[in-house]
Design brief:
The complex is a heterodimer of chains A (about 140) and B (about 700). Chain A is of the alpha+beta class and about 140 residues long. Chain A has two helices and seven strands; from the N terminus they run H-H-E-E-E-E-E-E-E. In chain A, a hairpin with a 6-residue loop joins strand 5 and strand 6. By secondary structure, chain B is an alpha+beta fold. Classes of the chains: A alpha+beta (about 140), B alpha+beta (about 700). At the A-B interface, strand 6 and strand 7 of A face strand 14, strand 15, strand 19 and strand 20 of B. Strand 6 of chain A pairs parallel with strand 20 of chain B.
Chain lengths: ~140, ~700
């Protein structure tokens, strides 16, 4: 019980720390960063509030606009919202960017490219050709 | 007195070298060296011959001039004396200028004034700055700064280190004392390591038994060393030899570890256990191989051991020569590297010549011209110049004449020989892999036409397509034969720093990966594969093979001849591409640099914006591919002719097998692979086509 509480407390602290993690931009500014900045806009489609993360750093909720140092390498972002499938996307920092991230509801996963039909309980059919025109799998 | 000395020191210090000047000039020997000495010698001395000589020196356009701004300074060697001379004077005196600066990039990444952006400024290939940053060990492939002490060893991927990096290697290794304890001769005795556990155990056992026997003999003979034992009992020499042979690998491994530790390759994070042939050692060997451009599997094999047995100054000299070679090639526009075999051609006068290995010839001439043709001379050079010098440093060299067939507009064409080709499936009815040997491997050759002769300039190893995994519309991966087209084609477009737009048939596992981003591991699209970059499917540069049409709306069947980081696939007889002709990245850079320099009809079209964007589902997460550009494009007019020859078809099948074939041992749903889940009739969308293959 005690351990569960401690773990829960630690988990909570970690989550708070992650949310409050200082943005890279602020760090740059603290260090006296005076270089050029680009503006990155992230919008979700449908227009819902989704969390945008860069690693452990929570950048904000969509629709979101923030500045970032120019030419500092691409920015790999994660866009999350309950009930929707998490999207991993990327913003480039050599120009101003406007990202419209399409979010798909979990129940609509079938509509996405790459969705796999689940195998039957017997683990699928044997390795034999299913195409009429294809030659035998093991000629 | 002391005050006077300090005052003099200060004055000398103030007049000392500025940034970028030689740290210590070679002995001037009273010859017309520095500008200062030249001015001094013009002071009235009352001796006429001295004044005359000084006046002559002042008139010499190739006199040493310390006053030159760095961008006008060229280092040349005149009568054995290293001088900084004016750039125009060096050119006028017939010196070829080689860019020695860290701003160097290959010809394909140069900025060309005829491609301008919306503001009228010359369009720059965005990858050029990444290339320089990578060569200079400043950033990773995404352009993110490297952590302190991290190195990029990218020569095997076509990016040689910058001169500052090479300088640091020379100077740092020279200062290390840890190499003194390495027995390089002992490493040289080993020709290849044994990795098979069973054999190693047997050897260990035999060595233990012999050691026991020899220890007993030593005790009996009251000696401590093997030499003393042999001196007393010569008949035991063969037993001692056998014991030494059995333990050689272990002793060499100790030396290899010492050497690689001194090199800085045995990184702590590799967790290598001393004396073990473990994964950590493999990673260290891979680092060593990449640093020294050794194309071998990550074992301690012949070439790797041969290089480990050489002192660091020799290896640094080899690195320098390779990096220098690429700069000589870029400066002179040559390509012939001796890969053609003996190809003969006749000049205008009817004299027969053999196609020369210009790359080796010019590099050696350039090194001799600048007096950097031995490891020690190169070390001395890099000790003379500090890092700042490499911001602008250029050298002037005297080179041999180019062959007569060279011009700015050379009729060029490419032949691809597919070599031995198997269309049969590569496994039997039990799913066991079949042996399909290929003795004659595919080759890509560039020719020029001169005085009714086809002169082959290079013959590079390349790849052809074969059986590859492909994603079917039902979401499962099958085998499919991805062949290389045969027949007449052309190259109309060359893209430097290309991106690869993956077709929908690309297995998704190769398009997604986990990566540590800003303190946390998250899913990312595998942009390494997509580019632009040295690891991209199209490497550093690609030429697009198309079937030409009059209106230039060419038929693109997705075949390219491009650079590749998968160099082992080019060297192996068992590896295939998806249909494209892969080239070693550095060879592709040279090939297309040569074509762009000598085709005579190149227009620079610049960055090709595509804003490609699509999503896919992999392991319950969506991955969004975002590619803003296709790369930096050049157009050839007329296009470069290409002929792909069928090669020798081996085995039973005389034509490629069509359609998907299930991979032996994998489970599949009992549905049509051409249909997406939940769709009844989707053939038009789902049938995979041969496009954008790699």
């Amino acid at each position: 019980m005690r351990w569960t509480l401690i773990l829960a407390l630690l988990g909570g602290l970690y989550a708070l720390a992650a949310l409050a993690a200082p943005s890279k931009l602020i760090e740059y500014k603290k260090k006296g960063f005076t270089g050029e900045l680009v503006e990155i806009t992230v919008q979700a489609s449908p227009n819902v509030k989704a969390h945008v993360y860069h690693g452990r750093q929570h950048i904000g909720l969509t629709p979101l606009r923030f500045q970032w140092p120019k030419d500092s390498g691409p920015l790999d972002l994660v866009v999350k919202r309950n009930g929707y499938i998490t999207v991993n996307t990327r913003a480039y920092t050599y120009r101003n960017e406007r990202l419209v991230v399409e979010l798909t509801k979990e129940e609509n996963a079938k509509t996405l490219f790459g969705y796999k039909e689940k195998l039957p309980p017997d683990g699928g059919v044997d390795a034999a050709p299913s195409e009429e025109d294809a030659p035998p799998a093991a000629p | 007195m002391r005050v006077l000395f300090l005052l003099l020191s200060t004055l000398i210090g103030c007049a000392g070298r500025s940034s970028g000047e030689p740290a210590a000039q070679p002995d001037q020997g009273g010859s017309p060296g520095a500008e200062g000495s030249s001015l001094d010698s013009t002071a009235p001395t009352g001796k006429k011959p001295a004044a005359k000589a000084a006046a002559k020196r002042a008139e010499d356009p190739l006199r040493h001039r310390a006053d030159l701004p760095p961008e006008r300074r060229v280092i040349v060697v005149v009568e054995g004396e290293e001088r900084a001379v004016d750039i125009d004077a060096a050119r006028a005196a017939g010196y070829t200028l080689i860019d020695f600066s860290d701003a160097w990039s290959p010809y394909i990444f140069h900025t060309f004034s005829d491609a301008v952006d919306e503001d009228g400024a010359p369009q720059q290939n965005r990858y050029q700055s990444t290339y320089r940053c990578l060569a200079d060990d400043h950033c990773d492939s995404d352009g993110v700064p490297l952590e302190e002490g991290e190195k990029n060893y990218l020569e095997v991927f076509g990016i040689p280190p910058s001169m500052s990096v090479i300088r640091a290697r020379f100077v740092e290794d020279d200062a290390k004392t840890c190499y003194e304890g390495v027995d390089f001769e002992l490493i040289a005795k080993m020709k290849g390591f044994e990795y098979r556990e069973r054999t190693l155990r047997k050897r260990e056992k035999a060595a233990r038994a012999l050691k026991k026997q020899l220890d007993a003999e030593k005790k009996k003979a009251k000696v401590k060393s093997f030499e003393a034992l042999i001196a007393k009992k010569p008949d035991l020499a063969s037993v001692v030899d056998e014991y030494q042979d059995l333990t050689l690998q272990g002793r060499v491994l100790t030396q290899v570890e010492a050497r690689m530790s001194c090199d800085g390759h045995l990184h702590k994070r590799y967790h290598h256990k001393s004396g073990k042939l473990d994964h950590g050692l493999r990673l260290a060997v891979r680092r060593f191989q990449r640093k020294h451009m050794i194309y071998e599997h990550t074992n301690l094999r012949k070439k790797t051991l041969r290089w480990l047995a050489r002192p660091p100054v020799d290896l640094n000299f080899e690195s320098f020569k390779r990096a220098f070679t690429e700069r000589v090639i870029a400066a002179t526009g040559i390509l012939e590297d001796g890969t053609t075999g003996e190809v003969k051609w006749k000049d205008k006068a009817g004299h027969e010549h053999v196609v020369r290995d210009l790359v080796t010839e010019f590099t050696e001439a350039a090194l001799a011209s600048i007096q950097m043709d031995t490891p020690q001379k190169a070390l001395a050079f890099f000790k003379r110049y500090d890092d700042a010098a490499f911001e602008h440093l250029q050298i002037g060299v005297k080179l041999p004449a180019l062959p007569e067939y060279y011009s700015k507009k050379m009729p060029l064409f490419i032949h691809v020989d597919r070599g031995d080709v198997w269309y049969d499936a590569p496994w039997d009815e039990n799913g066991k892999e079949l042996n399909q040997p290929r003795r004659n491997l595919p080759k890509l050759m560039l020719y020029t036409r001169y005085l009714d002769q086809n002169i082959r300039l290079v013959r590079f190893k390349t790849t052809i397509g074969g059986w590859r995994e492909e994603l079917a519309p039902n979401g499962y991966t099958y085998f499919k034969y991805k062949g290389s087209d045969v027949g007449s084609r052309v190259i109309r477009k060359i893209i430097a720093g290309p991106t690869w737009v993956p077709p929908k048939t690309t297995p998704l596992k190769s398009l997604a990966k986990r990566r540590y981003v800003n303190g946390k591991t998250q899913g990312v699209v595998n942009y390494d594969e997509l580019g632009p970059g040295y690891l991209s499917a199209y490497g550093l540069v690609a030429g697009y093979f198309v079937i030409p049409r009059d209106d230039e709306r060419d038929h693109d069947r997705g075949i390219r001849a491009h650079g590749s980081s998968d160099y082992m696939s080019i060297l192996s007889s068992r590896r295939f591409s998806h249909g494209c002709h892969r080239l070693m990245n550095h060879k592709a850079v040279r090939l297309y640099g040569f074509i762009l320099s000598h085709h005579g009809g190149v227009s620079v079209e610049g960055e090709q914006m595509i804003n490609h964007h699509r999503q896919f589902l992999y392991k319950d997460q969506v991955y969004e591919i975002r590619l803003p550009s296709r790369g930096f494009q050049f157009k050839l007019t007329p296009p470069l002719p290409v002929e792909v020859f069928e090669g020798k078809i081996k085995g039973t099948a005389q034509e490629p097998i069509k359609g998907f074939i299930k991979i032996p041992g994998k489970a599949y749903p009992d549905s049509d692979p051409h249909k997406r889940p939940g769709e009844e009739d989707n053939e038009a969308e789902g049938t995979p086509t041969l496009e954008n293959t790699q």
